[in-house]
UniProtKB/TrEMBL annotation:
Its cofactor is pyridoxal 5'-phosphate. It comes from Desulfonema ishimotonii. GO terms for molecular function: identical protein binding; pyridoxal phosphate binding; transaminase activity. This is Aspartate aminotransferase family protein. SUPFAM superfamilies: PLP-dependent transferases. Keywords: Aminotransferase, Pyridoxal phosphate, Transferase. It comes from the Bacteria. InterPro entries: Aminotrans_3, Aminotrans_3_PPA_site, Class-III_PLP-dep_AT, PyrdxlP-dep_Trfase, PyrdxlP-dep_Trfase_major, PyrdxlP-dep_Trfase_small.
Length: 185
């Protein structure tokens, strides 16, 4: 896509609202692919729960905007931007992004272990702490079973369990979830 955009002069925009801010084990997911977008959007995790949205652009693209050209009712308020800054300083300064990469790799290994043990698990997808367990069956009963044991798990497209845990999740917590899934599978 980067190559096509460069050839045609189109802008490449990455929506990193879910994949950014450490989730995939790097601060931004595009860093895994050595590709830089012209524009990137961020929100949600940026201020760790306080409402914020941001559009980042390269110098060349940003120069097309003047003050007031791109507004947002609650964008860039002092309290929320202070929270975003504190959040980024914590994530980067306290090694949370690295923790995300490490525990994500551990989590992925454990999901692959489940795949080896259970024929109903057909694939493991994702990176960092954004992972999917693809099932040959309906995933809804597993979601309910997990909930009864105290784990909030999402099922998407009917048969994929989607894991997007807090970035501070521990190996012990991952082990407990895996044991729960193993038993139910
Ligand atoms: C939530 C979300 C949006 C919308 O973000 P707003 O801050 O509500 O505009 C866009 N893209 C993705 C991937 C999201 O998860």
């Amino acid at each position: 896509m980067r190559e096509i955009c460069d050839e045609t002069g189109a802008l490449l925009i990455f929506d990193e609202i879910q994949t950014g801010i450490g989730r995939t084990g790097k601060l931004f997911a595009h860093e895994h692919f050595n590709v830089t977008p012209d524009i990137m959007t961020l929100a949600k995790a940026l201020a760790n729960g306080l409402p914020i949205g941001a559009m980042l652009a390269t110098e060349a693209v940003a120069s097309a905007f003047g003050p007031g050209a791109h507004a947002s009712t609650f964008g860039g308020t002092p309290v929320v931007t202070a929270a975003a800054l504190a959040n980024l300083e914590t994530l980067v300064g306290e090694g949370i992004v690295g923790h995300c990469a490490e525990t994500g790799a551990y989590f992925r290994e454990k999901l692959l272990w489940l795949k080896e043990r259970h024929d109903t698990v057909t694939d493991v997808r994702g990176m960092g702490l954004l992972l999917g367990l693809v099932l040959s069956d309906d995933g809804a009963p597993l979601v309910m079973g997990c909930l009864e044991k105290g784990f909030l798990v999402n099922c998407i497209q009917g048969n994929i369990l989607r894991f997007a845990p807090p970035l501070i999740i521990t190996r012990e917590e991952i082990d407990a979830l895996i044991a729960c899934l193993d038993e139910m599978l």
